[in-house]
Amino acid sequence: MAKIGEDKYIFGMVKVGERGQIVIPLEARKIFDIKPGDLVLVAGDAKKGIAIAKVEGMKKYAMQLFGVLDSDKTDEEADTKSTRTK
């Protein structure tokens, strides 16, 4: 692992398996608190590349995107509103 800036890292290379699977390096799993069974979001931009993010960390941003959460509300308020809208 190489730290390349404030909270920015390069974790090295991983090989893509026959079924398209990759292993997230241990150092990355520790820093981002990724454990077996956690859900991750895989997003991509054809010019910039692929990004992997833990779903829990993306929840607030996704809720803002879909208008469920105003940017000034807390996560707890968002959970309550999200539950009511289901």
Polypeptide structure, described:
- The chain has 86 residues and is an alpha+beta fold.
- The protein has two domains: 1-35, no CATH class; 39-86, no CATH class.
- It contains three helices and four strands, in the order E-E-H-E-E-H-H.
- The chain has helices at 26-31, 55-65, 75-85, and strands at 2-5, 8-10, 40-45, 49-54.
- The strands form two sheets. It has a two-stranded antiparallel sheet with strand order 1-2. A two-stranded antiparallel ribbon has the order 3-4.
- A hairpin with a 3-residue loop joins strand 3 (40-45) and strand 4.
- The longest helix has 11 residues, at 55-65.
- The mean pLDDT is 80.
How many structural units, i.e. domains?
A: 2
Number of helices: 3
| Element-level helix/strand string | EEHEEHH
Number of strands: 4
Uncertain segments: none
Structural class: alpha+beta
Structural Rg: 16 Å
Categorize the overall geometry: globular
Strand order of the largest sheet: 1-2
Helix content percent band: 25-40%
Provide the β-strand percentage band: 15-25%
Query: For the report, how would you describe the main beta sheet?
Result: 2 strands, antiparallel
- Termini gap: 42 Å
Mean pLDDT over the residues: 80
